Amino acid sequence: MDSLTLIQPDDWHVHFRDGEPLATVVRHTAQRFGRALVMPNLVPPVTAVAEARSYRARIMAAVPDFPDFNPYMSLYLTPRTTAADVLAAAQDPQILGFKLYPAGATTHSEAGVAKLEGIYPILEAMEQCGVALMVHGEVTQAEVDIFDREKAFIDDHLAPITERFPELRITFEHITTREAVAFVRACGPRVAATITAHHLLYNRNALLVGGIRPHFYCLPVLKRERHREALVEAACSGDAKFFLGTDSAPHPHGRKEASCGCAGCYTAYAAIELYATAFDRAGALHRLEQFASISGARFYGLPVNDRTITLRREQVPTPDSFPFGADRLIPLTAGETVAWRLYGSSGDDRPSR
Ligand code: DOR
Ligand code: ZN
Questions:
Q1: Closest Cα partner for 90 from 39, 36, 130?
Q2: Which numbered ligand comes closest to the C-alpha of 137?
Q3: Which of 28, 125, 225, 339 is the most buried (most CB within 10 A)?
């Protein structure tokens, strides 16, 4: 199959940052996706509905030529989040839920939750109001090996939470392990998971063989091949519990190529193209639309998009970098080609980059 037309996909997990970089990164997402779920880990974090509203306005102002792009917002769950915050979120149709970062688990997670039992009353309020919980699922204890932190989080936290709050809608974000796939499958229909393109395409060798490649460093960190295979199987299975969330996470060049480089892979410039590459390699291009355009919308109770996009099999060189305010942003596949090109939506046949 050399040409593929899909219902326009959505990205249910993306980082846009704020200020000048928005001009680059929001455009990449809006060129491809009808909707996005924007993560709230700004500094300071987006914790209240009014902050999310003004952040959303800045995102829209960055892409005046994409008036139909529709970013949904998430709020940052902190130990100070109240039931009133939950109620306010429930009443705003542009807010899909709260993002839970265990404190110290990842980039800009310092404001997150150290003692998860402490937020159980908030989870109860979310369950009652129908507000979703998006979870970064890794424990943070120093004694737990970084490759085992997702599995430990399932056992120590996520399993107890799903048992205690059976009606709470939970998105287990950017899953990376065979154990996470099995856990999500074993849960009821209120628990689903996003899977990134980079975790479908790469294992930990991409990060560590032949030198340390900082642009492949993300959290949860890339895992062994057998885990990547389980993710591909889940994404390509047609199971509506698994859907697209890029976790595209832009950082300035100097923060990535550093003695203590920060976590985040930038993929928004070719996100759906990279997913097409992964599905194609698995012989499952016919399943891409379910994963990218249908399952996530259904999970969040939203209709699928009206438009379509077309992808054609072409070798597209990746730029070495993109402007990022006064700095540069290095794309994940810098120096390589991507095997698909995106053409405009709904019969508009102009190449979009
Ligand atoms: O790699 C990551 N980058 N993982 C996260 O959880 C956060 C993200 C970011 O914000 O840079
Ligand atoms: Zn993320």
A1: 130
A2: 1
A3: 28
Distances from the Cα of 202 to the Cα of 49, 68, 93, 239, 290, angstroms: 36, 33, 36, 22, 22
Just list the catalytic residues.
Answer: 247
- The protein residue whose alpha carbon is closest to atom 7 in ligand 1 is 107
Task: Give 200's pLDDT tier (boundaries 50, 70, 90).
Answer: very high
Instruction: Pick from 247, 251, 330 the residue to mutate for probing ligand 1's pocket: most ligand atoms within 8 Å of its CB.
Output: 247
Pairing of strands 322-324, 327-329: antiparallel
Query: Which atom from ligand 1 is nearest to the alpha carbon of 136?
Result: 6
Distance between CA atoms of residues 222 and 147, nearest Å = 8
pLDDT at residue number 107: 83
Helix (H) or strand (E) holding 168: none
Distance CA 123, CA 206 (A): 37
Coil, strand or helix at 326: coil
Question: How many other C-beta atoms lie within 10 A of the C-beta of residue 283?
Answer: 9
Sign of the four-CA dihedral 276, 281, 285, 290: negative
Residues 6 or more apart from 149 whose CB is under 8 A from it? 105, 138, 139, 140, 220
54: CB partners within 8 A, 6+ apart: none
Q: Which is the closest atom of ligand 1 to the Cα of 262?
A: 11
Residue-wise pLDDT for 183-193, tens only, equals 999 999 999 99
Report yes or no: 99 and 74 within 8 Å, Cβ to Cβ.
Answer: yes
The pLDDT tens digits of the residues spanning 206-222 come to 999 999 999 999 999 99
CA of 349 to the centre of ligand 2 (A): 32
- In the numeric block, which tokens belong to residue 74? 């998430």
Region for residue 108 given its phi and psi (left: phi exceeds 0; alpha: psi -120 to 50; beta: otherwise): left
Rounded distance between C-alpha atoms, residue 116 and residue 133, angstroms:
13
Helix axes 178-186, 225-235, angle to 10 degrees: 40
Decide if 105 contacts 72 (C-beta within 8 A): no
